[in-house]
Amino acid sequence: MLSNLISRLKSSLTLALLRCIVTEGTVYYDGIPTDKINLDALRSNITIIPQTVRFILSIHHRLQNGNLQPELISGTLRQNLDPFEQTEDAALNDALRAAGLFALQDEAGASRITLDTKISGGGSNLSTGQRQILALARAMIRESKIIILDEGTQRPHN
User: Fold this and answer.
1) 126, 95, 133, 123: which is closest to 111 by C-alpha?
2) 63 φ/ψ angles, rounded to the nearest 5 degrees
3) How far apart (Å, rounded) are the C-alpha atoms in residues 122 and 131?
4) C-beta neighbour count of 126 within 10 angstroms
5) Helix-helix angle 89-99:128-142, to 10 degrees
6) Residue ranges of the chain with pLDDT lower than 70?
7) Options 1.10.579.10, 3.30.420.10, 3.40.50.11260, 3.40.50.300; which CATH number does 2-149 get?
8) Burial 51-66 (b: 16+ CB within 10 A, else e)
9) Which DSSP state fits 131?
10) What gap in Å lies between CA 24 and CA 18, rounded to an integer?
11) Is residue 7 packed enough to be buried (19+ CB in 10 Å), middle (13-18) or exposed (0-12)?
12) Could you tell me if 67 and 45 are in contact, meaning their C-beta atoms sit under 8 angstroms apart?
């Protein structure tokens, strides 16, 4: 019961921050009421890294132009991190390193993932942890001001 309440509260806070729901009070971003900030500008500075697809679906239909981009496309890792080819490879690798991808690979003894690694649609050839790390690296590359992480240790709700 408590975990359901916390989950709903977390979702409500996220939706309020992104101006997806009406609030009675005022929500602030960097000291400015969010209703005074251009919606595209507000959402472009926020990245959500969900734990599960269920969380994505619960807010995706309300969020049209935001920075909710956890889904991976079929292509190379480089294309997934930098679809508009605006970032140098060194910066992409730095973000992957800072997000912990290479440490995860070393611990798991998995085959090394590089910028040229092919990614299946939805990232189906990656573990959940690897997909979350790539989403974190993408947020770092985009220089998101706020990154909302859905807790990875929480059990999915039935």
Assistant:
1) 126
2) -120, 100
3) 9
4) 19
5) 130
6) 51-70, 104-110, 150-158
7) 3.40.50.300
8) beeebbebbbeebeeb
9) H
10) 15
11) middle
12) yes
Supply 33's token pair: 């009421």
| pLDDT number for residue 51 | 66
Residue 71 DSSP symbol: P
Helix (H, G, I), strand (E, B) or coil at 147: strand
- 19-42 tens-digit pLDDT: 888 889 999 999 999 999 999 999
User: What sign for the dihedral angle of Cα 122, 128, 133, 139?
Assistant: positive
DSSP string, 15-43: HHHTT-S--SS--EETTEEGGGS-HHHHH
Helix residue spans in the chain (DSSP H): 2-17, 39-44, 53-60, 77-81, 89-99, 101-108, 128-142
Token couple for 38: 């251009």
Count Cβ atoms below 10 Å from residue 138 Cβ, excluding itself: 24
| Domain ranges within the chain, ordered by starting residue | 2-149
